[in-house]
Specification:
This protein is of the alpha+beta class and 250 residues long. The protein folds into 2 domains: 65 residues; 164 residues, Transferase(Phosphotransferase), domain 1 (Orthogonal Bundle). Helix content is 33%, strand content 10%. It is built from 8 helices and 7 strands. Strand 1 and strand 2 form a beta hairpin. Helix 3 runs antiparallel to helix 4 and helix 4 crosses helix 6. The radius of gyration is 19 Å and the shape is globular. It comes from Penicillium cataractarum.
Length: 250
Amino acid sequence: MVVNGRTGLSAAAKRNLKSPKNGYAVDQEIEMTSRISKLTHQRIRNFLDDEWMPTVDNITDEYIIISPLLNATFRSLYTSNVSHVGRSIFFSQLLEGIAFLHGHGICHRDVKPDNILVKSYDPPEAMLTDFGCASDKTRIPYDSPGTIPYLAPEQVEGQTHGRAVDYWSCGMVGLELVRGQVVGSRILRGHNLTRHQDFLRDSDSPLNMCALAMLQVDPDSRMTAAEALPYFRGLEESRPPRPMRNDSPA
């Protein structure tokens, strides 16, 4: 956590420990971060905001300043009492962020619960963050990006991959939202994948259905974020109203 000395507002600071070995990767992250910082979307965590008065010092070789400061992630949702409808809304907001990035030619490549921040539980409000693995290439050589349990089957040494890896990772997050716990290991294919797919088939909710459609071994067969979003329309209206406070004396 860092504090703006002028306004007193808090933000997060990601420190870049640049070395001769990782220099290229750090430079790539800074380049992508600078590019994404110029984009505005409610589901993308801002690197800068109006309160911080953007300057060249917000994205440097040493630090990336990110606002707002948020501590809760999707991992906290797994063990929460948030309803299935609420989890579905959170999932749709993740898809909004991914669809927005892909619309600007950017693949996140590290979608996981720790990189999806919860700004508010009620009403549900989530933001996607951490673009250290992001790429704007159409075909990307595998270079060990991302987090192992959320890697798509095609993310292996000697092969290339595209933006469909984000859909697989979203499918994994959707599976975990339904299960209420992390899967914890990489799923490739075979019995293990079939078992998780069968679990998602137990319900025809938009969350189950879209997560299932994204967990396909063939990248071209995966449902995209843009294709999935229409299935979630109207969910916010279907949520029960928040209980009203009764401040009148008993």
